[in-house]
Amino acid sequence: MVQANSGLAENAEPEPDEPASDDALAHSLLSVVVLLKRLPLTGALDRGSLFVLSELALQGPVRPSTIAASLRLDLSTVSRHIRALEDDGLVERSVDPHDARAQSIRVRPEGLVVLEQAFRGRADHIGRATHTWRPDEREQLAALLTRLAHDLYPDQPTSEHPALKLHARKEHL
User: Fold this and answer.
1) Residue 93 and which of 21, 24, 72, 85 are 20 to 30 A apart at CA?
2) Over 75-91, what HEC string results?
3) Cβ-proximal residues to 56 (8 Å cutoff; 6+ apart), any chain
4) What's the CA gap between 127 and 149, in Å, rounded?
């Protein structure tokens, strides 16, 4: 059996006018995610609690089991983070209006401030990393990443995150 020769040497980079493969895109995104995870956190929260707090803010008042399912974590893990967030005054519990036997968790304004600070810390790191980029390159990257986020999860309001809304309000004051 004869294999077709693509004209590229093994391990050679594709020509600039060739579209990136799905593997190349996935590898690039994974590299960025891994590097972002290595950045220091702003504030006293650990990554897990910040992750849970962010999801709580995104979903609004919700049961812990819903957050656990969304994050694909064990309920006991999410409950531990919620207790810590509650102890820090960042979230509060209330009786679920649809089921008095269940509890609903919501983020307090202080929790949104913590999320905004974490977002600002990440944005500052990204700003330093891309400070030599042209403004149109930065805008293009932001637009493409927003599009990708929407295409990955079309039902998820990627631009409606409460922490981003808080950040936008502060910038317009």
Assistant:
1) 72
2) HHHHHHHHHHHHHCCCE
3) 62, 67, 82, 85, 91, 105, 106, 107, 111
4) 20
Show the domains of the chain with their CATH numbers. Answer: 47-108 (1.10.10.10), 111-171 (no CATH)
Structure tokens at 35: 């590097």
* Torsion sign over Cα 39, 57, 112, 78: negative
Residue labelled with tokens 């500052």: 124
Could you tell me which residue, 18 or 27, shows the higher pLDDT? 27
Query: Which of 21-35, 65-79, 85-99, 140-154 has the least mean pLDDT?
Result: 140-154
Considering Cα of 79, then 85, then 87, then 92, what sign does the dihedral take? negative
- Record the tokens describing residue 80, joined without a space: 């531990």
Instruction: State whether the Cα torsion 35-40-42-48 is positive or negative.
Output: positive
Closest Cα to residue 88, out of 70, 125, 123, 115?
115
